[in-house]
Amino acid sequence: MYRAIFNIIKGKIPKISSTELIALRSGNTSIDRQILQGKIKFPKNFEYKNKFPEKKLNELLVSYDNSKIYPNNNNNYWIDYLAKNKFFSFLIDEKHDGIKLTVNELSDTLTKISSVDPALGVITMVPNSLGPGELLTHYGTDQQKDKYLKGLANGEYVPCFGLTGPNNGSDATGQIDEGEVIEEMGKIKIRVKLNKRYITLAPVANLMGIAFNLKDPNNLLGKSGITVALIERGHPGLIQDTHHNPLDVGFPNGTIKGEFDISVEDVIGGRENIGNGWKMLMECLSAGRGISLPATANASSKVAAFGMLNYIKVRKQFNLPLSKMEAIQEKVNKIVMNTWIIQSSVKLTNDILDHGNSPAVLSAIMKQQCTERGRIVLNEAMDIHAGGSICLGYSNFLEKFYKAAPIGITVEGSNTLTRSLIVFGQGLNKSHPFIFPVLESVLKDSVNDFSKEFNNLLSHSIGLYFKSLRFGNELSQHIVNFANLTNFVALKGGALKAEQMLSGDMADIFSNIYLCLSVDYYGEIYGGSEKLSKYIKKNLINENQVIMNRVIDNLGPERFLLQHMKKKIENKNYMEEREIFQEIINNKDIEREIKKNIYVKDNILHDLETININFPNGESMLELNDKNEFHRLKERIINVDEFINKENEDSKEKKNITGDKMVVNRNLTINSNIDKINTIVQNAKATTIATTKVKLPIEKLVGATESHY
User: Fold this and answer.
1) How much is the pLDDT for 656?
2) How does the average pLDDT of the chain come out, rounded?
3) pLDDT score, position 617
4) Do residues 569 and 659 share a domain?
5) pLDDT, tens only, 222-277
6) Residues 349, 367: contact at Cβ < 8 Å?
């Protein structure tokens, strides 16, 4: 009997390439597997102490002048600053002069840097993600580690990693560059021909990791396959003479080209690691994809949400503050909901990673969901900020994030690919507790192993089906229903690869469940708002039910066994939307959590926060003490920069105009009145805060001491 079933399943399994198998075997599983088992156990809150000096981080953020980082006219000043001040050393152990951070601290640091400028975040992110530092740490020979890691940590080397090219983007190993083992004058070498593009930091890097498909036609080494090697700037035949300009965001990205020879010792890990390149990359990406891009999405969403929560109280239209308009309230609810989802999932994922896990599927979910939801936040915020968001200048805190958003969505596996092929397509095989063991038994052609694993799968499937017939807690039952649906969808076997609309829908359900769990986890640790958490989970589950109904309707005859899992969809409740908006506005814990890890000092966000500081009775401190200063600050917030027309450029001094004030250089942060504002508030009448009558300077009132930025 088992032989017949074995043959049927073997016929359903498509041919699996060696690179796909490596991806399936890389990393491990965590809550993703628990979801498909139908039962969840959260990790412990990971406690840690920061290693990187907060003073050094704040010195960067205070001194950054918003100038374009690349291309530039300052000899790559900011890139050199980051390198020399150990901002590229966060994955490197202290014994090699690095400052190895926990995932939580790395994520928080990247978020804070990115909140000032996404380009600054990208430049910091890349050396602390997949690249020479991480690859050398895990796979390098002792000689390679001694030669390069200290230099990477101290800024002597600026690294990049070259994988993609004109014919291999998201399909990274598609038509990848090639190398060939040759022998010249009795010495074995590797001749490589490169045409890399989209390589961040390539124009300024002096140490490059390169990936290529090595061939050994004469069996000189007896090894071949995807291989990763190191090469330094100036190597004979290496060309680094062109760059791309990704939406003019301002970070270096470019090409690595040329035909040249390298030694076998240049392979990371030496001769033993020839052909192991794809495994090395997948092992690193299984964790790294879940850290850096989610951190940058976290930054952009928090800046947009914090800015909008304050802007809508200042800006008026039709003689009403924007905060009184339901159309605006609806958008703010979406902004805060998605921002809360991102920050919650970042925390849960960071803790999973800090506990030593490397969950490839969760990392893919994080990359896709955070960047996608970050784009939603920015789109809604742009609508509210309106004219202020489409004109360049001091008061526009959205433009640079809006321009950068499509980049995060595109890199490290485009979101379309990740959603339609990776999250559920690979997740079904990797995260399911029994499908991959069945697959392994088929690949090994072992009927004995197959019979054991098939029995486990059958028992699991029957048990879940009967559990799906029960009523229970909304989220826990929803998880059981999804796990049950997954078992039915899995019957499609290899055909699922081509049914990408179905795979994408299942990926969305899978992702939304993880996000729901993240919101629960974040609330348990930090609190915030139980009302907001319930609202978010309700929306995610309702969104999932729409998709689940659609998936069931699109299945074959098996859909008749799943009709009990189809449920009525809840329509939006206008009263609930109004109540959630009031909760967002009135519960200061919500804004406090959103403000975490973004830089709010000497910038437009600080202006927005300052103007909204009120006495306990709701009166504006600033307006009460100096109406002129209040109105000047308000004008600075709601006005946009004006630039001298071309025909007037021969005036003595090029200027832009903000409100009634002339300012040199549109990038200048206008702080001429901040000292006066601070003095006003410091001299304000004694006010009751937390039932204690005290005088507090503005820094205390807005939480703007350095430790709280």
Assistant:
1) 52
2) 90
3) 67
4) no
5) 999 999 999 999 999 999 999 999 999 999 999 999 999 999 999 999 999 999 99
6) no
Closest CA relative to residue 293, chosen from 397, 361, 366, 365: 366
Q: What's the total number of domains in the chain?
A: 3
Residue 178 β-bridge partners:
193, 213
How far apart are alpha carbons 448 and 2 in whole angstroms? 9
Q: What is the pLDDT of residues 176-217, one digit of tens each?
A: 999 999 999 999 999 999 999 999 999 999 999 999 999 999
Identify the three-state secondary structure at position 689. Answer: strand
Residue 93, Ramachandran bin (φ over 0: left; ψ between -120 and 50: alpha; else beta): beta
Instruction: Assess whether pLDDT exceeds 60 at residue 596.
Output: yes
Looking at the predicted structure, is the pLDDT value of residue 133 above 60? yes
- State the average pLDDT over residues 624-649: 88
The domain that holds 275 is classified in CATH as 2.40.110.10
Last residue of a domain, one of 557, 576, 595: 576
What's CA 370's distance to the chain center, in Å?
A: 6
Label residue 195 exposed, middle or buried (CB < 10 Å: 0-12, 13-18, 19+).
Answer: middle
Nearest to 505 by CA among 563, 441, 571, 551: 551
pLDDT at 618 over 80: no
Residue 68 resides in a domain: no
Q: What pLDDT sits at residue 655?
A: 53
Catalytic: 412?
yes
Q: How far apart are the first and last CA of the chain?
A: 66
Residue 578: band (very low, low, confident or very high) from pLDDT cuts 50, 70, 90? very high
pLDDT recorded at residue 173: 67
Would you place residue 695 in the very low, low, confident or very high pLDDT band (cuts 50, 70, 90)? very low
Which residues touch 18 (CB under 8 Å, ≥6 apart)? Answer: 225, 278
Sign of the four-CA dihedral 113, 117, 118, 120:
negative
Considering the domain boundaries, does residue 104 fall inside one? no
Same domain, 608 and 558: no
The answer to whether position 76 is within a domain reads: no
Return the pLDDT at 649.
67
Parent domain of 664: 604-708
Contact by Cβ (8 Å): 286, 356: no
**DSSP class per residue in 351-397:** HHHHTT--BHHHHHHHHHHHHHHHHHHHHHHHHHHTHHHHS-STT--
Whether residues 170 and 263 fall in one domain: yes
SS3 call for 291: coil
CATH (domain of 372) = 1.20.140.10
Question: Residues 301, 423: one domain?
Answer: yes
* Conformational region of residue 251, where left means phi above 0, alpha means psi within -120 to 50, and beta covers everything else: beta
Active site residue: 134, 380, 412, 629, which one?
412
Residue 673 pLDDT: 44
- Which of helix, strand or coil describes residue 234? coil
Nearest-angstrom CA–CA distance, 355 and 47: 10
Three-state secondary-structure class, residue 226:
strand
CB neighbours of residue 264 within 10 Å: 18
Contacts (Cβ under 8 Å, ≥6 apart) of 181:
188, 189, 190, 214, 215, 216, 217, 218, 220, 221, 224
> Are 125 and 295 contacting, i.e. CB atoms less than 8 angstroms apart?
yes
Residue 641: pLDDT over 80: yes
